[in-house]
Amino acid sequence: MSTKGKAAFIGLGVMGYPMAGHLAAKGLDVTVYNRTAAKAAAWVEQHGGNAGVTPAEAADGAEFVFTCVGNDDDLRAVVLGETGALAGMAKGACLIDNTTTSAMLARELFEAAAGHGVDFLDAPVSGGQAGAEGGALTVMVGGDEAAFQRAKPAMDCYGKAVTWMGPPGAGQLTKMVNQICIAGLVQGLAEGMNFARRAGLDGEKVLGVISKGAAQSWQMENRGSTMLKGEFEFGFAVDWMRKDLGICMAEANKNGARLPVAALVDQFYKHVQAKGGSHYDTSSLMYLLTGD
Predict the structure, then answer these.
(1) What secondary structure does DSSP assign to 176-237, as a single string?
(2) Closest CA to 140 of 110, 167, 164
């Protein structure tokens, strides 16, 4: 698919850098912004396009403006204010946020964007760095359906499954469900692999068998072997998972949902952090069981 038009991408981390690259590869004229200017310069050297000095400058004239930053405060900083993206966007443009944030902030930015005559979509992603690099992310989108339909071809550049979930905030709420499910899956996988090893089984053979049955999951297919090897220096960091689980539990306190397993796994990740594993992949729950 070839996409035409002008876009901006704000935030060139491990996810945003390749996502912006897919937009450029599919034909969009992309201007990027990153807090560390050298990262933006490296992206332009690799993919072409331009770099803006501020988010507003990057967003100037863009039909679609994408953001992918760290947390709620980071997103407010690049969207709002005199140098924020909204200040540079023309009426009728669409702001698409791929950050994982609170649903409350998504609704806040929807209203702020509407005040500028701009559409806003909360569009968090799942699939990790590998999914971003391969253009195969799952994208969960909240906002006006008409805006989603207009923006979907652009999001398809980096997503294999791009789905409208409902009104503003629905994308972020769906991402919370995703993280709640992952927390339990990873802990279960860690316990299973540790059990297999202590039982004297060949862990790789165990994975080969049970991954063909009801226990199969993305985590098993992509993290089971590295868990067995004690390899955690890659992937989605524990710090970011704890941020996400904090968002989940704050929302659960509002809607009355009980999250006993997610809360427990969050504390396990706290122990990983205390052992110096803040930047380990989330599969490092295995580390607490083995002591490796």
Answers:
(1) HHHHHHHHHHHHHHHHHHHHHHHTT--HHHHHHHHTTTTT--HHHHHHHHHHHHT--SSSSB
(2) 164
Q: How far is CA 222 from CA 24, 128, 198, 227, 240, in A?
A: 28, 11, 22, 10, 19
Q: Of the residues 4, 175, 212, 243, which is catalytic? A: 175
177 and 271 inside one domain: yes
Q: Are residues 93 and 75 in the same domain?
A: yes
Q: Dig out the tokens for 146 from the structure.
A: 């008409």
pTM: 0.95
Q: Is 175 a catalytic residue?
A: yes
**For residue range 133-155, what is the model confidence (pLDDT) as tens digits?**
999 999 999 999 999 999 999 99
**DSSP conformational letter for 87:** H
Which tens digit of pLDDT belongs to each residue from 17-29?
999 999 999 999 9
Contact partners, residue 199, CB within 8 Å, separation at least 6: none
* Helices 72-79 and 103-115, axial angle in degrees (round to 10): 10
Burial class (CB in 10 A: 0-12, 13-18, 19+), 46: exposed
Burial class, 233, CB count within 10 angstroms (exposed 0-12 / middle 13-18 / buried 19+)? exposed
CATH of the domain at 118: 3.40.50.720
Cα separation, 34 vs 41, in Å, equals 9
Q: What average pLDDT does the chain have? A: 96
What local confidence, expressed as pLDDT, does residue 285 receive? Answer: 97
Q: Tally the domains of the chain.
A: 2
